[in-house]
Automatic annotation (TrEMBL):
NCBIfam families: PRK11898.1. One of its GO terms (biological process) is L-phenylalanine biosynthetic process. The lineage of its organism: Bacteria, Bacillati, Actinomycetota, Actinomycetes, Micrococcales. Keywords: Amino-acid biosynthesis, Aromatic amino acid biosynthesis, Lyase, Phenylalanine biosynthesis. This is Prephenate dehydratase. It comes from the Bacteria. The record marks T186 as: Essential for prephenate dehydratase activity. It is an enzyme of class 4 (lyase). The keyword Lyase applies. Pathway: Amino-acid biosynthesis; L-phenylalanine biosynthesis; phenylpyruvate from prephenate: step 1/1. It catalyses: prephenate + H(+) = 3-phenylpyruvate + CO2 + H2O.
Length: 324
């Protein structure tokens, strides 16, 4: 270890615990988090609160699932809590097992503990295999499994959990691969306080939240046009109620590209002029590392040339239009 590395202060990362969650698996993908302090929390609000208060340098939270869409509690937290930036995204393929205390059989199960998102992803299997079950929500799937050991003994209780749960608890696996979609993926984001943006890589994503100015026909179309007219693809568009009155919505947007890309920067300027409230959440490398695709008409050079042309018109300077 170099002297600089040895003297660097330890960094702290918050994640939804306890140990063994999918969120921990996402955090394990962050190279700079290896060997640092990992702090388990009970929910998204606590994780982001750690970052805001300075108890943690960053927090890993689930933001979107390929089956259920956006994680509303995370989206709403990012829309309302101050001074947060997404600095990276990570994908985790999710599958689940049904577990119970030793000696329990599948036909004895009457109650299933599980995180609401995981429960929704396993609902068809559960309805077929355990048709008369009741559901008890849990803060995480590992917590659901741990709750099986609460006293007094709970006969007929089972839990939805990650496959590695048996490494942490003495449990019997009643069924494997119980998720309704075998290709389910959860997208996680690493959130920190505002600072230097990750550099553009050519395979980037920009996240923001924007409110519609008024509830009228065409308002959403005008928001979308800020991106389409600049050749910026949106990989996510979800609405969330502002909460102060009916008909008021904010939109969670993921746009392909980096804020330092001319087309993305110009789109954000358009959104800023259009929306009464815009929250920039960050520009960061895409988890899949797939290069952003866009038409050559929206390259940086085209935007820069257009500004040079306009400046020449204003100043009266001679200007030779470059070949395209």
């Amino acid at each position: 270890m170099s002297e600089a590395a040895a003297s660097a202060p330890e960094r702290t990362y918050s994640f939804l615990g306890p140990r063994g969650t999918f969120t921990e698996a996402a955090l394990a993908q962050v190279p700079e988090a290896v060997g640092q302090a990992w702090r388990t929390v009970n929910n998204v609000g606590e994780a982001l609160g750690d970052v805001i208060a300075g108890r943690s340098d960053a927090a890993m939270i689930a933001i979107e699932n390929s089956v259920d869409g956006g994680v509303s509690v995370a989206q709403d937290a990012l829309a309302t809590l101050p001074d947060l930036r997404i600095v990276g995204e990570y994908l985790v393929h999710v599958n689940f097992v049904l577990v119970a205390r030793p000696g329990t059989t599948l036909d004895e199960v009457t109650v299933v503990n599980g995180h609401p998102v995981a429960y929704a992803q396993c609902r068809k299997w559960l309805d077929a295999a355990v048709p008369d079950h009741a559901h008890i929500p849990a803060s995480s799937n590992v917590a659901a499994a741990a709750d099986l050991f609460d006293e007094p003994l709970r006969p007929g209780h089972a839990a939805i959990a990650p496959p590695g749960i048996v490494e942490h608890y003495d449990l019997d696996v009643l069924a494997r691969d119980i998720g309704d979609n075998k290709n389910a993926v959860t997208r996680f984001v690493l959130v920190s306080r505002p600072g230097v943006l990750p550099a553009p890589t050519g395979a980037d994503k920009t996240s923001l939240i924007a409110e519609l100015p008024v509830d009228r026909a065409g308002a959403l179309l005008e928001l979308l046009e800020q991106f389409s007219t600049r050749g910026v693809n949106m990989s996510l568009l979800e609405s969330r109620p502002v909460g102060d009155e009916l008909g008021r919505y904010r939109f969670v947007i993921d746009a392909d590209g980096h804020i330092l890309d001319e087309r993305v920067a110009d789109a954000l300027l358009g959104v800023r002029r259009f929306s009464p409230e815009v929250r920039f959440l960050g520009s960061y490398p895409r988890a899949d590392r797939v290069p952003n695709d866009y038409d050559d008409r929206y390259s940086d050079a085209v935007f820069i040339e257009a500004r040079d042309w306009l400046r020449a018109l204003i100043t009266g300077e001679p200007y030779d239009t470059p070949e395209r």
